[in-house]
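request received
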Amino acid sequence: MVAIDGPAGSGKSTVARALATALNWSFLDTGAMYRAVTTEVLACGVSPDDVDGVAAIASAAVIATEPVVRINGRDVDQEIRGAPVNQAVSAVAANPAVRAAMVSRQRAWVAAQTRGTVVEGRDIGTVVFPNASLKVFLTASLSERARRRGDEGATSVSRRDDADRARAVSPLRRASDAIVIDTTGRSIDEVVKEIVTCLKTPN
Ligand code: DC
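response:
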């Protein structure tokens, strides 16, 4: 099991997906799960800061991330990338009950897989799978991360990162035993090859 963490736009999803394809392993985008809960919160007219209201939605939610992201059967694959979700998702992800509900789904998902897994997010190596066989922490310069996030813009990306790093529960941080890869100016292929080499090298 490979855990890949890092801030928005560090290349996590792209690299994790490409790594899973290269290894023929299963891939889980945990950010899509927090985003899916956020779409449901907004669709229900609940405030992202309503701790109990948001927690109730998260604990009852049925979420799928492949082949398209769905919550309670609704296809939210496009909606999860929109500005309203970008703005609200950090508040939803800071809610401890939401995190508990998502972490148990993530662990159950990995336990159900019959092949290796690549899981990406913010707290995968630190909290969700502290015994992952390999932990990777991806970084990139803010300008590169903002460029990758396109319409979201540098201000929104950096505001979200600050919120994700500063929250009390499972903040974004590098696990002490994670390898750090700066993806600025590097191709997906190069980064994937570096990770595959680490996987093959016994520590
Ligand atoms: O990776 P992303 O941008 O799709 O993640 C969306 C938000 O979800 C991000 O602002 C932080 C949160 N998140 C989290 O708190 N824990 C995770 N394991 C994954 C994402």
